[in-house]
Amino acid sequence: MKYSRQSGALLAKLFRSPLANLRLARRVNRTGPIFRKKGPKIPELTFGKDGKMLLVGHNSAGFYYKVNFAFLLGWYLVSYFQKKSNPTYIFSNKHATNAYVYLIGAGLIATMLMSNRHLRYLYLHKNGTQCTVVMHKFFSLWYSEAVVEISTFKGVRHMFKPSMGVYRLNYKIDGWFRTRETYLIFRPEFVHDRDIWKLVRTGNHIYTPEYAEKNRL
What we know:
Blueprint (H helix, E strand, L loop, with lengths): L4 H10 L3 H14 L20 E6 L3 H25 L8 H23 L2 E7 L4 E8 L4 E8 L6 E3 L8 E8 L4 E8 L3 E2 L2 H8 L7 H6 L3
Antiparallel strand pairs: 1-2, 1-8, 2-3, 3-4, 5-6, 6-7
Keywords: Membrane, Transmembrane, Transmembrane helix
């Protein structure tokens, strides 16, 4: 009796000995699915001696924050001392002049707060589950960094108009007392690998060689 190749493979699976099934189960548990042709892709990544790889960067923003800081601070000081000597040096109403000076100060504070949220560098760790986030601080006069679990990233959305290309990324970070949710803003000028960055920002682990070995993939 003639039968197709598919039916022959099915009969072979049905009449496989229990010992062969046990060997197959042990092999699957040890090395993962053995017939998985479309398994997780393990990219070839180059990590530094510290076990990190630069994935996203926006260092040039620091220059603009420093320029804005110098300009706004100078503008505020000149306006403030002019107001002290002549309350109506711009507007005939001194309350309008005070509001004008306060608006300059508010712009200075808003720029500082925005710089504290701005991403400078994001490094992918060799384990594929963590990132080091380096942020601009105080008009980019210094920086701060923190280790963040990739699983806490919740995707990105536009911060302002889509044409501006400024994005917001929510994540969680361990504080002194509790884990708090915060966000960073970025306008990436450098992306090492767009596919990997898309996975990271949506909270997916990266199948690095170390991650694959640890999880037996």
